[in-house]
Amino acid sequence: MTDETLDASAPLHDSAHYLHAVTELAETRPVVAQAAIYSESGVKLVAEGMRIDRRLYERLVQHTLREPVDTHLWVEGALTTASLSAAAREMLASSVLPYKLAQTLRSPESLLAPLASMPLPSSVAFKLTLMREQRPALWKHSVEMMLIAMYLALRSDTSARDCVALCAAALMHDAGMLHLDPAWEDPQHKPVGADRKHLVVHPITSMLMVRQAQVYPRSVEVAILEHHERMDGSGYPRGIPGAQISALGRILLLAEVAAAIYEKYEEMPALQLALVLRLNHRKFPAGLSAYLLPLLDEERARDSALMPLGANAARQLEILADAFSEWDRLKASLVRSEQLTSAKQALTQPLAFIEMRLGALHKVLLESGTHPTQQIALIAQLDGDAAGMAEVAFVGKEALWQLQSIVNACQRRWPAAHAASPPEDHAAQAWCQWVLSRL
Questions:
Q1: Does pTM surpass 0.85?
Q2: CATH superfamily of the 81-304 domain
Q3: pLDDT per position as a tens digit, 122-173
Q4: Could you tell me which of 105, 238, 193, 230 has the C-alpha nearest to residue 408?
Q5: Which Pfam families did the record assign (predicted)?
Q6: Cβ distance 23 to 15 under 8 Å?
Q7: Least enclosed by CB within 10 Å: which of 77, 101, 346, 356?
Q8: How many Cβ atoms are within 10 Å of 76's Cβ, its own excluded?
Q9: What is the DSSP letter of 72?
Q10: Where are the domains of the chain?
Q11: Which of 92, 39, 105 is nearest to 69 (CA)?
Q12: Would you tell me how many other CB atoms lie within 10 Å of the CB of residue 199?
């Protein structure tokens, strides 16, 4: 389901947040203009040879620049191919999942080999340096994701040429986040409704940043654009199904999820990732998931005895069951709800959108044996089984995350129902608010 308000062909201009990050970087190390920087109207804003500092921020942010600011900047200690390889090698030794994956290969260094052939023009090196210095969590995520993506590529016999392209795509897939408020990295920052559109647009921004460099093949741009798509068409920004997602895009979307889960969950991330992949088997490429699941299951079996009792399991399942019941109650109160059957309606009607997405979640939970009615019955049989309760809790947490994503997507597309809106729209908004009040 494509969000029609997102335009991948629009020109990219430096945002206030990006310019702020650049000037903040200049406070920690020398940043010098190698050429004059002009506004789109021809006003010279920064002279050649001038050192950038925080005082220039107000001047730069008041204008639309003729060209991206980083095409004219030199920074001391900029990332090089050698320093990038060294950082990746260090992360390979210290990051849990990349290390685990590397140990299964005959030559762990093969994960780093494509970096030597990857183009690294000065503008891209500047962006990655900015990420490394100003957004270290984003930098760590990008390098870890690159290593996971390379493992999946090698296991699936991806060509050497495509491996080089994949490295560039993985390292730059979240570069668009540099244009967003750093508050997005705060786990306590939970934007809802229309505010989430800023997050949804970041794959497009990242793709345009790579396009500006004019050195990477089209496959890099496409893969970056697709790194949040899903095989069942429920991803973003274009909502395309698996048949339309490129081979590199499929690797990238799975690597992104794997890296994110290992970053987010300190306790038993292997169990969490394994459950996510199995519970969402329609969302992720099965062939690639098969390269991860056996390794995850080994860790899961080894660590399960250490997992504390899943104390939140019962409450999580209760919320999920209530959400399904509340949705059925709202639909029953509407005359036309039985007509909500087509994907076309789901593009324009919030009630149809929720019906389709919630129905898909309901079906997946039933098929995988993790529907709340099934799990609630299971809890009664797990008294004292810490590992079993932990799995139920993880399933509940993942299902609630998916419930939250349905609400987020609905509120982003239809921020509010108006007095003149049909009863169906008000019912959809009421359900979203009800879910948010319980989560």
A1: no
A2: Hypothetical protein af1432 (1.10.3210.10)
A3: 999 999 999 999 999 999 999 999 999 999 999 999 999 999 999 999 999 9
A4: 193
A5: HD_5
A6: no
A7: 77
A8: 11
A9: G
A10: 16-75, 81-304, 315-437
A11: 39
A12: 17
